[in-house]
Amino acid sequence: MSGRDDANARTDCPAASASLLPPRAGVGLRHPHVLGFLEERPATAFLEVHSENYLGEGGPRRRALFDLARDYPLSFHGVGLSMGSAEGLDPTHLRRLAALFADFQPAVVSEHLSWSVAGGSYLNDLLPLPYTDEALALVCRNIDRAQEAFGRRILLENPSSYLRFRHSTIPEAEFLAEVQRRSGCGLLLDVNNVYVSAQNHGLDARAYLAALPAEAVGEIHLAGHARRPVGDQVLLIDDHGSAVIPAVWQLYETALALTGPRPTLIEWDSNIPELPVLLAEAAKADRRLIGLDVVEGQHVA
Predict the structure, then answer these.
(1) pLDDT in the model for residue 14
(2) How many whole angstroms separate alpha carbon 69 and alpha carbon 66?
(3) Coil, helix or strand for 147?
(4) What is the pLDDT of residue 292?
(5) What share of the chain in percent tops pLDDT 70?
(6) Which residue has the higher pLDDT, 85 or 293?
(7) Quick one: three-class SS letters along 120-145?
(8) Contacts of 224 (CB under 8 A, 6+ apart)
(9) Dihedral sign, CA of 201, 206, 210, 212?
(10) What is the mean pLDDT of the segment spanning 185-210?
(11) In order of start, what are the domains of the chain with their CATH numbers?
């Protein structure tokens, strides 16, 4: 980014592309499928869970996850840290997350480029923030604090958006790239979010992908979305409630051409299907990842 101080860039973090997850497809572990995973141990590269669902001490939920962690690498995806909060990060929440990660030792920890806390109250949504120099500085401060508390690098996910702030001065992809450069965090590239935002705002999704530092992408998310009529237009909503559409698969292939094989998660959080349907969706991503390995001459596991 032109005009920014290179002295702010982090050089003491490991390569952002490094990931302890295999570069294959995994699925989000949701309650209806827990018993199936415990009893059948179906083949999938990794499991991702929402961090806040496992903060309680003890209980059957944590026991089940400890059991599954013997056979599956874990990715912990946070939804409540509020990385874009001007109030800074909640120290109690930070401590609880740090203890959770110490207990489970997940391969990957991630959060969202959003905010969700105001005046000590948690809002049940991932809210957008303006892309300004002030916001850039506070997001980097919050990431630095989180990475110090966790003793590890985190991945930051690009949001889906339904509005744009008039006073934003930095394009979103450039904002994410600069956050990564300054903080040393990695990126969680949600391809469906890129598609949704591009369709809602008339942006070039492929140009967005090209503006990101490809080597920083440590994980990719894929999901379905909903279409909602708003007046004489249609708004796309990132609801994780359906299969990935062909246009998002095509954009995923574009992303893989830039990043190379990356751990890829199928998110399906509403209208949750039977487990075989979810695994079949992950297999579609795996076929693309394996095909890319063949093209690049790499060993296919």
Answers:
(1) 40
(2) 5
(3) helix
(4) 66
(5) 88
(6) 85
(7) CEEEEEEECCCCCHHHHHHHHHHHHH
(8) 192, 239, 240, 241, 242, 243, 244, 245, 268
(9) positive
(10) 97
(11) 6-296 (3.20.20.150)
